[in-house]
Queue: 2 jobs
Job 1
Amino acid sequence: MPTIKINKLDKYYPGENGETTHALKDINLEIQDGEFVCIVGPSGCGKSTLLEIVAGLLEHTDGEVLLDDIPVNGTSRDIGVVFQDASLYPWKTIKKNIAFGMDISGVPKKEQEERIAKYVKMMNLSGFENKYPSQLSGGMRQRAGIARALVMNPKVILMDEPFSAVDHLTRCTLQEELIRIRQEEKKTVLFVTHDINEAVYLADRVILLSPRPSTVQEEYDISIPHPRKRSDEYLVQKAAEIVAAISIGADKQEAVEYYI
Amino acid sequence: MAAKSRESVVLQPVSKSGTGKASKRNITYINVLQVLTVAALLGYMEYAVTSGKINRIFMASPSSIVEEAFHIAADGTLWPHLILTLQEVLVGYALAAGVGIIVGLIWTMFPKTEAYGNVFCSAIMAIPKTAILPLLILWFGIGFQSKVVLIFLFSVFQILYSTVTGAKQCKIEYLKVARVFNATKMQTVFKVMIPAALPSMFNGLRLAAATALTGVVFSEMQSAKAGLGYLLSESQNLLNTPRMFFIIILVTLISVCFVKLIAAIEYLLCHRWSRV
């Protein structure tokens, strides 16, 4: 049964001089329960826009987004979001940052403590609970950002280029951790990235968006089980396929612009 | 010589990063020079005034300033004036801080109120506050009230605008996080926007603390029956130069302490998380 269903989604941005930008055009997607889907595409193609619409942070112009057959109107407890630079509050300790969502929804302190303890352990943040974000590395901050989303126990986790701000080695570690957590927690994950290798390594399915106005250009099933090897020939080939498809999309756009 | 200068070039960065806090307390020859400069200046003042090279009306010797300080503290002349000035500053400043922060938050929460009120506040802010002192005296008399109102006007806009600026600088991501967790408007303001605005808010509070004292001394000099500013202009009329010097020093110290106090509150609230 699909968790997220996106039907004929359109998004226009009002631009300057009354011109509108057509960001997303007729996006149709179904994401199954427990599936890990990566969205890739050329920069500026509206990956993050799509994610923010699903998160309920952004209004869409036309079409619908359904979560378990209920239209998404605004943010929802069932959807957790992990932001690009973690976006922790600098004035709160790591622990208080993780507790933020529970504070907002009035979860009793005792339950908060238990849940925080669980996710601090899961995200390898033990010993850093009382540190402030400025005292932590980018990787640790993003761990806290993920813990903050997971602690609310949402059905779906949306991740907007979560590992783009950390160095390569940290990124690899975080990827391994994400795979492990996802298997432990059985979450549906929608993951936006511009790193094709990351996408094929993590995902069950990779969605390639075309340049603006974005549509689903191509879908790739990555049908090998975890644990995967980064150097796996199948993955390397898939990645090459996607890279080739991106450049075809980019060429088309250039040609169109040229003839206009 | 060459070896020595090379040594100091090499040692400087080491002592900075290596010994950390301890190196800050090291007394350098620059500090010694500074102390000597001040001592020489004071010594010359003492000599010039006592020997009669400079007329006692124009300059006070350090010893006579100290003497005068003990004198007016001992005979009780100083205290009522000092207490009154402190009261005026504290009441005016507290009102300004309260109103500035509250209006700033209202503006942030309801942008239409800012659209409405901004033009009026900018207009009033543009008036040199000292120019409306005669009017304030007409309306509120020459006592406590007119001083409080003037200090209020001196400080409130700085606090208001730094609060608004701080809240506006709140990163869009911070607000997105609040929305993802379905925070109400109140929760967003109190748990996200106010903490995010704190550093800028304190910037305004610190600047306003310095100007508040300027305001009160000025207005007391113009027209008052008491207060340090009154005492200052009175000692001018009596040609009591040591007392003038003492009051200037006292007002400076109060101003510095006031600013330090605000900085200390800021430190207590923010030092653990704000980047050093």
Job 2
Amino acid sequence: MRADLDIIKDWIPAGSRVLDLGCGNGELLAYLQANKQVTGYGLEINDENIKQCIRRGVNVLEQDLDKGLGNFASNSFDIVVMSQALQAVHYPDRILEEMLRVGRECIITFPNFGHWRCRWYLARNGRMPVSEFLPYTWYNTPNIHFCTFEDFECLCRELKVKVLDRLAVDRQHRHGIGSRLWPNLLGEIGIYRVTGPSL
Amino acid sequence: MPSVIPHDSVGLVTPQVLHFSEPLPLACGRSLTEYDLVIETYGELNENRSNAVLICHALSGHHHAAGYHSMEDRKPGWWDSCIGPGKPIDTRRFFVVSLNNLGGCNGSTGPGSANPATGRPYGADFPVITVEDWVNSQARLADALGIAQWAAVVGGSMGGMQALQWTISHPDRVRHCMAIASAPKLSAQNIAFNEVARQAILTDEEFHGGRFYEQNVVPKRGLMLARMVGHITYLSDDAMGQKFGRELKTDKLNYDFHSVEFQVESYLRYQGEEFSGRFDANTYLLMTKALDYFDPASAHDGDLAKTFAAAKADFCIMSFTTDWRFSPARSREIVDALIAAKKNVSYLDIDAPQGHDAFLLPIPRYLEAFVSYMNRIAV
């Protein structure tokens, strides 16, 4: 299982109703259905991923996140998950608000653009970072809204979103002492559990 | 004509007629005292009787969904692209049942059949049948075949409505519902098109108030017009443009009104002509009425989510991007209601230029998704 999903799966209580935005091949929902009696839906637009979800018996809906979540009732899910998709949507702030409207809690993971390797790449080459982990160049990347952990937490403060949990991990999903002390410098992927201002 | 039967065909098939003598009460308040249903089956019913799939047909469909009736047949059944060994509805795994609906004109009891009370054809006396009535008659069919529960009920367009109705009327008797290019009810525009088609038939002099059988005539003009207007709604603007454009049949314009000049005119006339030779005018009226009346949410204050509350099936809903008869938005209404009702549902919007007709065509992404879904159904 992908690093961040492996951690998320433990953050979701058994029996929850989950909406997974950008659910990929459905591996998280498939695991949760099989092991934690979780019910819910995945949203996806990639054809191959949709097929894999169907094969796995995961409820998958072909729906573009950029068109909003208007078809989901407020507070109709226990948890709304969005893993590695925040940086690819047109309006991260709006989708975050929508997630908090639809779900009681949200779990969000995204790559940290403040990681030392990104900073070093930009400082040394004067060009947008390209790596094994983020292999795209600036003009063809689906990732149009990169942010750092600091940026994200700043948005949370602006939207009065409460951060319940956060974890900075590297690609091997290790979260050692370094990424705990200096997450914005040493963490590659951020995993946040947040809730709306009303709770 | 197939000189050899393709390896992924169900091959030569023979329809069978089942007679039902227990009266069937109908939504209109009347009942059919007895009736026939003509069916075809493909594949084998397994020992647990758990692998049966019901195919529900669309407006002008019938029981002959797959395979050939004889080596002289020009074309296979209407959904041969999806039913057969190795096809989405794989007849090596599933026992497939396909019927002609009540009111039809392909062998099941309909307006052209003899009314047992009078010995004459029903004609206009044939009761108006609803989607609910069809589903109830299909439940009787399931009883007769010893099928307590369908592995899946599958249909496109009007067939999708029947598949949806199954999960509402008989929640315990269907494990999976697949509704393709369908809608939870008709829009005013849909009804308007149906009304034009009906008026074409009703105002045809040869219609004789539905009693044309006794006059030995057929309201061909009316049926032809009905089919022509219907056919326009089955194709997308792009599909028509691509197929015909403004291409002429003649080498120049004739500056008159009776010549068939544009290819699209010729095509529509051919379609109408062909249809009027094989379809029954009263059946066309009945089918369009059943479509117009379909609105399962009306019994639940218009709340479609409440309507599905008791459903136990898993759902697969598919639409096609250029379908404007039952657009993707109509499928999403179904999906949203199912989500609100907390049902298992998957939804795909297939990118296809062909319009409503796409559900009958072998579009790769459509067939692959169809296969994926059918394969996950345990039997």
